[in-house]
Specification:
Elements (H helix, E strand, L loop, with lengths): L1 H14 L4 H13 L3 H14 L9 H9 L3 H9 L8 H13 L2 H14 L3 H10 L4 H13 L21 H5 L1
Helix pairs in contact: 1-2, 2-3, 4-5, 5-6, 6-7, 6-9, 8-9
């Protein structure tokens, strides 16, 4: 149902093109649907609308960098989120640091993550599976394992939840 969602977002942007949150959400959803270049460009446009944008506007950029194995760029962007208590920040920092082999930074991110979401290891695959294709989910699981998070293997993990069809802003916020 992405086409229906995008039509609704396009309409929302047309009605209020200065609404950075709607523009950022549209960019993230475009990127996560596989239109990475366009989605990242739209999300970056939202950042230009509001120089004091919330860190979640960076999600498309972070995931795209990680997806393309540019772990340094993913880590640098994740470190700039600056939203205390936002569990995705240490998730992305741990995965990228794990892939980079930066053990101390990776372990620090895992400790921060577990302080915010103690049970994340058992739900990690499900959380990522809400938004990403299985191959990218496993790529993130690999980074988290390298960071020291004891993520169950795919064969022992809980079944994935179906992808959300609406209310995307709740999951991002």
């Amino acid at each position: 149902r992405f086409e229906e969602e995008f039509a609704s977002l396009d309409r929302a942007v047309a009605l209020n093109p200065m609404d950075g949150a709607t523009v950022a959400l549209m960019g993230i959803l475009l990127a996560y649907s596989g239109e990475w270049e366009r989605g990242c460009a739209v999300a970056e446009g939202a950042m230009r609308l509001n120089p004091h944008f919330p860190g979640w506007y960076r999600l498309a950029t972070i995931v795209n960098a990680y997806r393309t194995h540019d772990y340094r760029a993913a880590l640098d962007a994740a470190l700039r989120i600056q939203m205390p208590g936002y569990f995705w920040t240490p998730v992305f920092c741990a995965a990228a640091s794990g892939q980079l082999g930066e053990r101390e930074q990776a372990r620090k991110a895992v400790r921060e993550l577990l302080a915010i979401r103690p049970g994340f290891a058992s739900s990690a695959r499900e959380e990522f599976g809400k938004w990403h294709e299985p191959e990218l989910v496993e790529h993130f699981m690999d980074g988290l394992r390298k960071a020291g998070l004891e993520v169950p293997g795919a064969e022992t993990a809980r079944p994935e939840s179906p992808r959300p069809e609406s209310d995307a802003a709740v999951a991002i916020a």
